[in-house]
Amino acid sequence: MLRTGCLRSVTTVADRGNLAEDVLAERLLLSIYAYGTNTGIKSVAGGTDRHSEDDIRYTRRRYLNAEAARRIAIEIANATFAARKPLIWGESSTAVAGDSTHFGAYDQNIFTEHHSRYGRRGVLIYWSVEKNGSVVIHSQLLNCSASEVHAMVEGAMHHGTDMEVESSYVDTHGQSEIGFGVTKLLGFDLLPRIKRINKCKLYRPAPGKPICGQG
Predict the structure, then answer these.
(1) Across residues 182-209, what is the average pLDDT?
(2) For domain 86-199, which architecture applies?
(3) Considering the entire predicted model, what is its pTM?
(4) Which residues pair with 50 in a beta bridge?
(5) Which of 73, 136, 141, 206 has the smallest count of CB within 10 Å of its CB?
(6) Handedness of CA 175, 140, 158, 94 (dihedral sign)
(7) Alpha-carbon gap, residue 165 to 191, rounded angstroms
(8) What whole-number distance in Å separates Cα of residue 114 and Cα of residue 144?
């Protein structure tokens, strides 16, 4: 992360900042670690003598907004793609895999809803992950009743990284008839794993063409 220089892209949401670059970088890293690992800022601050809990919270509020976090994630992903050696990793992947993860959340969060499958209240985070190297190229917050088909398209089209997405692997919840049509128009393939496929109505790829697997 430090080698990418991604923290230099963070700009203050206020008019000007007066923190030294190395101090800002350390506090941003502590903030990211606190939230990314769910450790919490208070616990992270207890492990360092250089920065107080108030210092880290101030830096998080002033500098680490949603747009800054997205820019950091994009720069890390692009730096990872650029550093890979094809001899070791193979050619760059053009496929992503998409799925959601349920997280518990307080009722004060406007996205919090009851999830029928998990049986509790919370939110969903939908991940779009590069299939070969497991690099996250996009993530988004959803309520529990949101369409995963829409989230799949959003992640494949608006990830912002240098990756060219040509196919998207999803589970049953990430596909629909409309989803197949939209992804075809957008120029990438929707490749779902469909439960109870024997109960589904399937279509030929084009009039007169055989069903896949038949001569």
Answers:
(1) 83
(2) 2-Layer Sandwich (3.30)
(3) 0.79
(4) none
(5) 206
(6) negative
(7) 12
(8) 7
